[in-house]
Amino acid sequence: MTTIPSPAPIRRRSTPEELEALPLLPPSATGLAEVVRRRYLLKMLVRNAIQSRYQGTALGWMWSYLQPAIRFCLFYFLFQVMIGRGAGMENFAVHLFAGMVMVHFFTETFNGGTMALVQNRSLITKLAVPREMFPVSRMLVAAWHTVPMVAILVFVCVLLGWTPDPAGLVAIVLGFAITALFGLALGLVFSVANVYMRDFGKVAQTLTQFVNFSVPMMYPYTLVHERFGEPIASYYLVNPMAEAVLLIQRGFWTGTTSDPAYTAGIHLPEDLYTRGLVMTLIALVCVVLAQRLFSRLEARVPERL
Fold it and tell me: Which end of the chain is more exposed for a tag (fewer CB within 10 A), N or C?
C-alpha cells in the first residue's frame, strides 16, 4: 500500500509584534553581505518605515509630492524672484531643485541612519540579524522618498525641452551613488556612536544644516571660483556632496539650457567625471571602513540600549 506523504507546512512570516517577543539573541552573522542575504527582513523594515510615516494622514502618499513641490516653489520665489540670485542663469529653478534632490537624499540617509539603532532597540535586542540592516533600511527609505522629487524634476525638465543624453545619465548615476554610499557610511558610524553617546544624534542634525550652504545649489559653482580663486575652489570640491550636486545638475539642468555645452563649460568644473569616479571609489572605501568600525562596536549595543 502506497502512503501519501503529508504536505510540507506553509511557513508564515512573523509580524513585527511576534519578532519583538522573541528571546534576546546575538546576531548570527554580521556584515553588509549578510544584510543582502536576508532581503526579506530588510524589505519588511523598509515597508514598515514607509507606512508609518504617513499613517493617520488624510492625503497619505500625496504628501510625498506636495512637500517637495511646495519647497521648490518657496526656494524659487525667495532666490529667483526676491533677491535675484539666479539672474543671468538660465532655468535657475532647475539648478536649485536638482541640488535639493541630492541634499534631501543625503540628509534623510544620514539623520535616519544615525537614529536607526536607537529607534529600533526593541528589535535589536530580540532579533539575531546583522545590525547593519537598520542603517541600510533607512538609506533605502530615504531613496524611496526621494523618488517623488526626482519625478517632479523630470517633469519640469521635460517641459523645458530636456532630453536625456548618455553622459548626463552617467552623471546622474554617479551623483546618486556618491550620495548613497557616503550617507550610508556616515549613518553606520553615527548610528553605533549614538548608542554610546546620544549627543551624536544632535551632531548629525547640526552637520546636515550646513549641507544646504556648502554645495552649489543656491549659488553656482562659478561664484566660489570667482570669489576665492582656484585653490579654494579645489578644496571646495573635496566635499563629496558638492560633487554629487554638480553631477545631477549636469544630468538635468544643463540639458534644459539653450546651449548645454556652453553652460557646462561655464558653470561646471572641467574634470567633473574624473572627480565623480574618484569620489565614488572613496565613498565605497568609506563604507567598508565604516562597516568594520561598526562591527567592532556593535557587541555592546544591546546592553547600551
Answer: N
- Judged by average pLDDT, the poorest of 47-56, 175-184, 224-233 is 47-56
* CB 127, CB 26: distance < 8 Å: no
Please tell me the predicted confidence (pLDDT) of residue 19: 47
Q: Is 178 exposed, middle or buried (0-12, 13-18, 19+ CB in 10 A)?
A: buried
pLDDT tens-digit readout, 57-96: 666 667 777 777 787 788 777 766 776 655 567 888 888 8
**Cβ pair 139, 113 in contact under 8 A:** yes
Domain locations along the chain: 29-50+60-304
Cell numbers describing residue 125: 535586542
pTM above 0.85, yes or no: no
The SS3 call for residue 134 is helix
CA dist., res. 23 & res. 82, Å (int): 59
Where does the pLDDT of residue 156 fall: very low under 50, low under 70, confident under 90, or very high at 90 and above? confident
Q: Is the dihedral of CA 128, 133, 135, 138 positive or negative?
A: negative
Q: Which three cell numbers stand for residue 282?
A: 572613496
Q: Distance between CA atoms of 71 and 78, rounded to whole angstroms? A: 11
Kindly write down the DSSP assignment for every residue of 150-210, as one continuous string: HHHHHHHHHHTT----HHHHHHHHHHHHHHHHHHHHHHHHHHHHHHH-THHHHHHHHHHHT
Dihedral pair phi/psi, residue 268, rounded to 5°: -125, 145
**Residues in CB range of 211: below 8 A, 6 or more apart:** 103, 106, 107, 241
